[in-house]
Amino acid sequence: MQNSDRLPPRALPRRRSGRHRDPLSFDSWVGTPTLVLAVPGDAADGTTGAELGASMADLVRSYRPEVPIRFAHTEGEAGGITEVLAGLVPEGAPNEEERPPGYCDAVIVPLVTGTHTAITATIAQALPASGAVARITDGLGPHPMLAEALHLRLAEGGFARADRMRLISVVAASDTTADGVMVGSVGGPEAIDEAGVSAVLLAARLGVTVLPAALDDPAHVAQIFDQLAAAGSRRPVIAPSVIGAEFPQERIAELAAEHGASYSASLGASSTLAKIVALRYAEALNALGIDQQPALEELPAPVGSRHRPEH
Question: How many CB atoms lie within 10 A of CB 247?
Fold first, then answer.
C-alpha cells in the first residue's frame, strides 16, 4: 500500500539552453573574475565619479550577487585602475607563462555608452603595471536599452511623454515638448555611429527628428542644430548619451544655452545601465569559456572565495 504521507520526488528545474536561454546567465567556476567598473577621470577631481562608481556597483550587484564587484578610476593613483587591479592578484598567482588558458583576474567594463578610444587606451596602458590579467569589454552601447534610458531622462525633464511606445500619456504634451532631439555622444567617430543607433530607436519612440552629434566637437553640434532647424524643429533638446563622468553636465548646459536649446540630464546610474553592464560581463565570461575553460586543478584558490579545495 502506498504511503500517502510521502512527499513526491523533487523535480529539479532544467536549465534552458540554446538561443532562448537567459542572456545574463553564464557558467561560473572557481576563480570567477572580479567585475571592475572603470569610471572615467581621476578620483582627486571631485566626488562625482566616486558616487557614480559606488551607485553603479550597488545596482549591478542586484543582477550579479555572486560576483565580486569593484570600481576604479581610469586616471590617478589612489583608487586608480592600476591600484585596484593590483589588489585583485591573488598571492601565489602563476607567472604569465604558467597561466592556464582562460585565466583571468578581472573583467573591466568601461562606464561609457559607446566606443571611447582614449579611455580604452588608458585602461590598456595601466594593465602591465598592475600585474593582473584582465579583459576589457566594449562600452555599454550600442544597445536598445540605451534608447529607453534616454527616453526616461527626456520624460523626467518634461520634454517627452513618458511612454509613447505604449500610448500611455503620463506626461502630457506641452509647449516644452521637444520637436527635435540631438543625441550627444563623446569618444570619437565610432561613438557617433553608435549614438546613431540610439537616435533611430528614440525617433521611433518619440515620432520626431532625432540626430546624433559629438558633444566634444562644437562645429558638429552647430551643424546638427542647423539640420534640426531645417527639419522644422523649434524646440530642440539635447539628450546626452553620456553616463556623467566622461562629459560634465555644466558643459552640456553651455552648449544648450549657446544654441537656444533645452537639455535633459545625463544618464547617470540606473538599473537599465546596470543590466547592460551585467550583460557585458556575461559576454566576457562566455568568451573565456569558448576559448578553453580552465580545469579546476589548474586554477589557484581564490582569496575569500566560498569555494574550498578538497583535502
Answer: 21
Q: Would you say 282 and 248 are in contact if contact means Cβ atoms under 8 Å apart?
A: no
Q: Is 163 strand, coil or helix?
A: strand
Residue range 241-290, pLDDT digits in tens: 999 889 999 999 999 999 999 999 999 999 999 999 999 999 999 888 74
Give dist(CA 88, CA 68) in Å, integer: 10
Strand order in the sheet with 180-185: 209-214, 180-185, 236-240, 262-263
Contacts of 140 (CB under 8 A, 6+ apart): 109, 111, 112, 113, 114, 146, 243, 273, 276, 277, 280
What are the grid coordinates assigned to 222, written together? Answer: 552647430
Taking only the tens place, the pLDDT of each residue in 150-194 is: 999 999 999 998 765 444 444 445 677 899 999 999 999 999 999
| Full-model pTM | 0.80
Q: Are the CB atoms for 80 and 44 separated by under 8 Å? A: no
